[in-house]
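One thing: could you explain this record?
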Amino acid sequence: MQNNLKVLICDDSTLIRKKLKDILKRCKCEEVFESENGNKAVEMAKLYSPDIVFMDIIMPEKDGIEALKEIREWNPDVKVVMVSSVGTNQHLKRALENGAIDFIQKPVTLEAVTNVLTKVLEEGNVNV
């Protein structure tokens, strides 16, 4: 899957970020940025203007839902995918209400990430 997507990964776990980055590289995403909390994710989204953000929900300093709101206020076109091990309906509902396009349950798999990237590219609402 060749693409020019700019991707931001936001997760407080170094291990999860590494695994997701490895998967994204396998999916031919060349520009992948990382942040470890919601505050940093908002800063990096403004700095790099990613096409898609993979966002953990439960993080220190600022959770993924708050970061999602701020990023989408700044750039309503960015695609945000929530990635979490706590897949409660309440979290998922709040994320979707605030503009998330999808949800991936941890542990993250190549198949789940490929499905999301394919969906985003097929919808064509990204500047690639």
